[in-house]
DNA sequence: AGTTCCGCTAACGTAAACGTCAACGAACGT
DNA sequence: ACGTTCGTTGACGTTTACGTTAGCGGAACT
């Protein structure tokens, strides 16, 4: 996974030293399929150069890809991420977009906080169940009362 | 949203005081559609009693529903939640299941941590972008260098 | 009695994000 | 020269979690 070494794929092509990647270079690096990468292109998230029919990815494309994946991990849909890209491309650093973006981010943060709270609640219940189990074992009682079902 | 008052739906039916709910009671309380609730039943997650063809939900069913929703918020699929229910129903408090459950929970925790890290990274970049913007404004320079695209 | 809800089943539709062939061309190693 | 590998464009298939009619039967209000 070290993009400095690499077999001898498409590094330093053409004139100066424009670092480029093939589709499978990126697929391996990010551990996704080439199909996924082409799909992101279909959805307008990346637009790699072409050498004939083959796709040539630049460092910029590579950054975009990492941003797409980060967006996915945060629960953004591909369309949401695309909109953010579009906004930024058409006027980087504008305030209206910034606030739109902050809204999305805030919503995600709220989701994460709720998830954390859910996990905390589960852990609490597990803790209570354990204590209950220990107590019933200590008292040599076969079963406590059997609640409804912990889990999830 | 107070389930103690309620119009005069299906509270205290039958013999003693077995609190029950109609499907729309629960739909309103949890803010989901009745279709969703029936779907959970199709998938084997709940099995409400019937009075004729109509579904009668007990407090146990209501707890299950809340667990299903919590599972969803944590990213568990309905099938995963169902498996957890099945495991617990067939032998509550067994250790093998507990470890299976803890595995799932651990995976979710890892996901959450990664998401938190992603958000931290984004906030860092936003902070850096702001500093850069302020600096370029202070120097009356039109644009910095224009990176690749922050967002997502 | 009539009409309006509520609920039920059955079945088809949907959206997102790819997976999975198929059929083909170009490039690369031997 | 040739087989293998890599890449390309369709195009259809898949999964999850419901949404959306459609058509019908009781139940409840007036």
UniProtKB/TrEMBL annotation, chains A, B:
Domain HTH merR-type: 20-87
Entry-linked SMART domains: HTH_MERR (SM00422)
Pfam families noted in UniProt: MerR, MerR-DNA-bind
Domain of life from the UniProt record: Bacteria
GO molecular function, one term: DNA binding
Keywords: DNA-binding, Transcription, Transcription regulation
The protein's name: MerR family transcriptional regulator
